[in-house]
Amino acid sequence: MRFSIFYEHQLPRPWDHGEEHRLYKDALEQIEIADRVGFDYVWEVEHHFLEEYSHSSAPEVFLAAASQRTKRIRLGHGIVQLPPNVNHPARVAERVATLDLVSDGRVDLGTGEASSSAELGGFGVRRTEKREQWADAIDAITRMFVEEPFAGWESKYLQMPPRNVIPKTLQKPHPPLWVACSRRETIHLAARNGVGALSFSFVEPEDAAKWTGEYYRIIESDECVPAGFAVNPNVTVVLPLMLHEDEATAIDRGIDGAHFFGFALAHYYGTTPHDPGRTDVWAEFEERRAARGFDRDRIIANAETLNVNVGSLRGAVGTPEQVIDLVRRYETAGVDQVGFVLQSGPNRHEHICESLELFGKAVMPHFLEGREEREARKAERLAPAIEAALARRAPARKLPPGYQIDEEAELVRARRARRSGRPAGLRPVLAVVRDEAQATARRRVQRGLFRWVHGRPDAEIERRFGARAQRVFFAGMARQYDPSMAAGFEGELEFRLKRTDGTQTAWTIQVRGGKARARQGEAREPAIVIVTGTGDFLRVFAGDANPASLLMDGRLKVRGNVELAPKLSEMFGGPSPY
Q1: Which candidate in 10, 95, 535, 575 could, as Cys together with 458 as Cys, close a disulfide (CB 3.0–4.6 Å)?
Q2: Which backbone phi and psi does 377 adopt, to 5 degrees?
Q3: Which one, of 435, 453, 477, lies nearest residue 539 by Cα?
Q4: pTM confidence score
Q5: How many Cα neighbours within 13 Å face the side chain of 122?
Q6: Which of 527, 539, 533, 531 has its CA nearest to residue 571?
Q7: Count of Cβ atoms closer than 10 Å to residue 297 Cβ
Q8: d(CA 378, CA 231)
């Protein structure tokens, strides 16, 4: 049996200035104690917008701080939200690897998809797609850990060209993987993906036995196809905890926190209305707790065997002897780790610290003897099944030789994928070839143009870029027009090219009905007028001059709808300016 502490960073109202600062500093001190007395893990959640219930939106920062104040305790993300709208997979891989390095390889990567309306709606994640997004992202992230370079990704939810995602994790092939579970169905999901199950359902040990049995049956079956490149067969249950030699004192110190944890969880993950910045969850808890199943009067000191749910949620709030018995029942049920929530509701820092010290002294020693041998036997038993499961996992990919970063081609593919609403890989092969051929042709033209204008005086460029060349150039611009990049714009664009002799030539591109046409002459009603020297005009297109610098130097002038100027490049087939 392994033991962990679990943090939501709860902060019931009312709030005073500095309360969040105190909350974080207290938690770091508690983790130092947990590390010293022998706890194996600390889990830190990622939640957003869940006032009072969880003020923990950047767990990687908090865990990094904890890594520098501890020596042995493992640092668990419990969990990272994987929908790309919340966390881009490459950023997850980078942050986890960095944390693994600064902690000397102590990271466990718990993952999830989020379920609260506040978070899903806040980041624009469709509830019906979040499971697919999780599966897609975890596959991509684990490949980022092991592929060097990462061979790229094209799916409905993520389009990313090949890149070497660095740094790499200290643990190989990557940190152990977990997924948040609250129902029997998600326990099965964890097993099918070969990842640890982090259960937050407050189940009794006897019910947990059914879940662990089904979990390990799937792990050892052909159903298990690992999401990563290692299998992490483990089941963790999470419970409220407050410990004291006197049962009544333990209840007095910890039951309100346990009940607020359950009440606030139901508040955000149910259908309770919430007015951001105004709803007082703690006030509602005090008013409605009994009606919602968290009756304080139902929890009495009786010196009997602890049940997790007895009238109201109790968890592991009691004496060391009661908690030893409860943990032993979970151990018998096949649970690998019990995680405890102490920092919840109004629970006081000094009482949390006392409970951690008492747990390390009076409870933990009962579960240390023979633990390593039992875990070794488990690993030996599961080794053939794990080897077979990993053989079913698609291997790491190798990037074909000769690939080079190509911003323009990559932007073309990404832009077309966004426009179609489908991954680029689902488009017809000929369309992919056409896009890349067009991008390659534009690159050749741009490189040739760069060589042609670089270092040449304006007068020489003007002689070569005469009326005929200009006609070809602007006709080519019109052919490259992409209406999906125009944001509905229709109108006339005027370009005035000045020469060193003081004369100038005007060209107009008219955008209408999804098409663009070029003609010589001034626009009748221009939406924008761009005035610059002929040489500077070509230098900008060749990548030999920065339009922002030309603007500041007065060599480029923009009149009319200046907000349209940054969009012109993408409208006519060029790369995004951002």
Answers
A1: 535
A2: -65, -40
A3: 453
A4: 0.75
A5: 13
A6: 527
A7: 8
A8: 13
